[in-house]
Fold these 2 entries.
Entry 1:
Amino acid sequence: MTETTPTAAVEQATDPDDTAVLRFAVDSLDALVAFFDTCTRRCRFANAAYASLYGLTSASIVGRSIAEIVGPAAWAEVEPHVQRCLNGERVNYLRTHPGSDGGPRMLSIVLTPYLDATGRTTGLLSVISDTTQRWEAERAVRESEERTRKFAAATEEAIVFHCNGVMIDCNDAMTRLTGYPLDEVVGRNIFDFIAPAYRSTALEYTRSASEHLYEVCILHRDGHEIPIEVMGKTMPQHGADYRIVVARDIRARKNMQEREAFLALHDGLTELLNRRALLDQLSLALAQARGAQTARQKQVAVLVVNLDHFKTINDSLGHAVGDQILYELAQRLRACVAERGFIARPGGDEFVIVLPSASRSAAARLADELFPVLAQPLAVAQTSVSLSASIGISLFPDDEQTAAGLLRQAEAALRHAKESGRGNQQFSAPGMAGEAMAALQLERDLRSAVAEMQLVLHYQPVVHVATGKLAGFEALVRWQHPSRGLLEPAAFISFAETHGLITPIGRWVMLEACRQLKRWHDAGLAQVPVAVNLSAFEFRQRDVAKEIAAVLDQTGLQPRFLEIELTETALMQQSEHVLQTLQAIEALGVGIAIDDFGTGYSSLAYLKRYPIAKLKIDRSFVIDTPDSSDDVAIVTAIVDLGRSLKLRIVAEGVEQADQLALLSRLGCDLAQGFGIARPMDAAQTQAWLEQQR
């Protein structure tokens, strides 16, 4: 049998119809077919599709050389393949060819040598298939796979491909997450990496082709479990579907959640229980005590520990150092209490210790142990700090039945410990909590008094001793309490000083006194000054000179009509700050007087150093004169001292005519008291002034 080429078959057909049929068959093929003579390398036959590829017809292509048909550029690419075929080799290669739409077409070309009876290559059959669509599809797959590979490499999330649980591939993040290299991951069952407790959940998730987000733990190579968040997707493909699994390491999130849960019940600085957890744990301890069998187990002690003068630490060394100290002291408390109970830090510099099954003596012993432990020096901020503590103790069931009640009783005992000199322990006693509640109510009422304008000023005249003429007024604050009536300063000023309320009261008093005096001056009444008392707390904590200047500017009162009265306590620290403040007040033109002179403990050196204009003799030295020779001697000495220092002297508490006569003989300058005129409200004072015209 001899091999016949398509061209030969066409040429050898004796019947014209056969020739037409053969050409029709060749032209109908999907392939592009052409036959070339090896000697001339010219085309002897080509079907219509082949000729059309190069813009020719079946007739016009015959006789053209391969180089003429494909063009010089393509011939340089094609010639090596043609030469191989001419050498008797069947050649298969790919090349691109411009398409009619301008885009590239991918052609698959098979060159088959035609051999004659002697085995010599006499012809070359070229069969071309257009594989553009398949090439583009494969390219799209390759590009998709490349994008997937790059994405998988770039993301921190672990990506795994598996088919029926057998891992096909994974990214580097998965190998980092498990601790296994790629070659030890691929081919293994994905469920081998799931922690046993979560394996059934993961199996069911995969079997049901679920695609929701869920959490499991995987096993690291070293054996520890890692919580992950997982989502799987089923990817269809021929033969068998596969799953792509994306896993995210959620250790950081879990740690944060655990930290948040911890901080919901613990203090962030010391990691002791916070107030919420304290009340819960104390309530539990009380419930256990109620159901206990022995007398000792039925008892619970609560110790509230507060550091003395801790604010000084924060103010002087800073809050960062204060926090360092609190942390260190918390560790000391832990070591001291150990297994006997639990500790909480409700806030600030206060700690609470709860001792289940503890008697009164056991609570006292622990308190005694705590004092030296807390007092041990701390090395912070390149200095050594020593602190003392005050401790209040309450007992269940003796003092209270509830957790909140026991804490209130212990806090009331703590206040008693501080009032008793600090650095000691005090047990709760009947009435303590009631006193604390009364103090709390007073604080609330006093805040309302400032906000709701319940304060009023009374004015007491000050007269010249020699003539009895008006020399000025002292403004005295009163509280018009809505239920208790008019309250004297003794009922609330000291409380206001210790509870941080004196500043708004002092500001209001100064502003109101200056405003009222200016009204009287504008009404043509006596042009005399008004004296306003300034608390030692206000003097130390405020820029009083600046505030006085602002009040004078706001009210329009001339500075010479305002006097500031200070107690000796305000001047006890002979500091540059005190001197500068007093000098600034004097520079405004405002007078400065020392109130209650003789009752303080300061050195008299301040009389020489500070710009003081007046001394006010305390009423306690005046009230028993002239009958008390000791008091007469004190008043005489103060008057003589003032005269020698060129200071004006004011006697307070004058009630009798013989007292006024004594002061006149001694040469005292000014006097005030019930014997001269009682303090009066603004309306009464105005009426009094109008009578003095």
Entry 2:
Amino acid sequence: MNLENLLKKVQLSLNRKELRNALNYISEIRDKYPLNKRIDEFINSNKKKHIEQSKLFHEIINLQKDIRNNDFALKLLELIKLEPNNGYLYGLLGDYHGSILDFKKAKLYQEKAISLCPFEEVFYINLSKSLSGLKLYKQSLEALKLSKILKPKELETNLLIARAHIRLFNYKSAFKVYNELLLNYPNNLEISIEFCRHLLDIKETNNAIKILDQINSRQDDYNEIRILYGLVKLNQNNVKEAKGIFLDALRLEKNSSDIYTLIGLADEKLGNYFDAIKNHKKAINLDPNNFNAYKNLAVITSFYDKTEEAINYLKKSIEINPQFYEGIYYLGQLQLYSRSFELGWKNFESRWDCKDYHQKKINTKKKQLIELNKKITLFTWSEQGIGDQIMYGSMFSELSTHVGKLIVKLDKRLIPIFKDLHSDITFIGKGDKLFDDDFDHHLPFGSIGSLIRNHEIDFRRNKYPYISGDKNVTSKITKKYKKNGEILVGMSWSSSKAMLSQEKSIDLEKLLPILNFKNFNFIDLEYKDTAEERKLIFRNYGVKIHKEESINNFSDIIGLTSIIDACDFVITCSNVNAHICGALNKKTFLLLPFGRGRLWNWNKKNEKSFWYPSINILQNNNEESWDYPIKTLKERLKNE
């Protein structure tokens, strides 16, 4: 189709009020005739015609200055009575409602503005902001793409498109836009810095360094670049270097609230919690609206079990920024930790809007379940590691009674330990395909609790054990390692969770006060190869820790479960084994760290977990050593 015919198609679509078709034809013209200016002339002519038809244009210009006035909306409504087809009046009314966070009304007025004046790209930009405020992020991105059709090279539109992709966690698409922007605006420092920040957010540190090195060669005295190099060091886990860089940056900006926040973050990672608190409070004194500082204060305060104080900090953070989803998500975790389940589950849903939450929702047109229904087929799917999958598995049995059919998708290694005790449930592995026609609604594991675990008493309906091992393997382990009435003790001392492995793990040598018990036979439950650790302990202290070499503890979860089932009790740090023990209802002593490694699901009441009644939680009381829980455990074991 030639240019003339395409232009006619645009006009015909407009006459029929088929706006989307008109924009599609404009997009086609731009693709086929990128150097031809006639489509720009057509767009500008239509915009100009709309403006010239209005007698109120000067009033509109003056009104824009008073958008915050209380009678602003009333004035606009009066003007609309005079010119009911003036798109700019509706656009302003939409902007006003957006400014007071009434995004539903803003959306309605902005859509009306577009219908009246479809070639004003700003209307699409403002509509996208309202859609984003309503959490309709995909629709927000689509509105921006329509704006881009009208003005392809517009800097603001392309920046907003990049940010919209970030909001949807479409990092590849976002970074493509940022790279295009850097080609078109090579000297725009703000774009480079914004791009770097997003690269660092998802740990693409090397790419961030390349951009930083380029702009630093032109702007080596710019403090923002210095700060970004500090964030690079944080990503590389060179925390002391990072703190040094932040302190250098502070000398140039002595009253920077953001820099104090970063220093506080480095102190937290270094375990200097009191210094971290001091720096975050300093950040708040300098800027009372620093919502990140409030959130970081909440995190550290929660380490000391000052949960209510931490919750108040988070509420303040969210009050400042109602769309601070990281703060809302952490608030949900603390509320669940403090057993405010109904509120906790509600705020826990904000995990999907957090850049630090690396799980993705499934791709389906079916809606998430919000109300239990015995007539439906429900598909519930895992979103986290196998420890969490086992924990949420405590609700599978009850959930299945509230729906017609339950399909559960989880790590394939877990299917053998669940299927025997849940014969009415269909289990599939993460790699197995399921189509939309196979189910009516879906539900992520982390949202099951919002439907059936809203009060502490609800957890009493859990049935234990709700997983099982292989009885033959358990019998074999029992015969092999429990001779002469020996007590078989399962041992697990490390965590493989990437971000918190150091905090949660215990050096095996520190467990010697336990390993020296003479009437205990110890068996290794670790995932990793521990041959050297066990050899060293035996050579130096004469302590034998057995390893069942016929079972791969990482890949053979039913084998590992069978070993644990054979044990009289288990001693473990916070890892998958703790969850297996709890699901088996096995007597367990959980050694929990102080600070960052203590997760929300290990809340305790009288040292008992609300998820797992058989687990005794012994939490450390400081970050310096594991002496307290190990000493406490030693005293307990004297009576075993």
